C-alpha cells in the first residue's frame, strides 16, 4: 500500500514551517499484514504500531528512491492501493479568518486521466467524525464490490482509533 502524508510532521528540531503555505507531500510504500482471525480494531492497532516505527514518518523515502542507485532487479515497488490520511481537518485550519469550505470541490482530476492506483482511499476526521472516500479503477473493480467494501468499513473506524 502506498501511504501519503502532508509532510509537515515535526521531525527536525528547530525547523518552523508554521508560516509556510502548503504541504510537503510524502509518499512511501508499506506492507500491511492482516491475520484472518484478527479483528479490525486489532488490525488498526497493529498497523498504528508498525507505522510509528517508520523513520521520520516516511519523509526520506522519496529522496532515497530517486537519489540512490537503481533498485535491484525484481525489487521495484509500485503499490496498487493508496491511502491518504489527511488528519483532523477542522482543528488544523479553523481560525477567525479561515475554515473548511461548505462548497463541493468538484472533480480533482480529469475523467480522462489514467489512474495511478487501482484503489485510492482518502480519509480525514472532521467534527469528530471519520470521513472516508474511495476512488477506483472501473476496469479492476465492479461498483458493487466497492460499495460492499465501503459498507464493511462503515462504522468500524472512529476518531479515537485513528488519532495518535
UniProtKB/TrEMBL annotation:
Superkingdom assignment: Bacteria
Pfam families given for it? Condensation
Q: Cite the GO molecular-function annotations of the record.
A: catalytic activity
Q: What is this protein called?
A: Condensation domain-containing protein
Domain Condensation, first and last residues per copy: 3-153
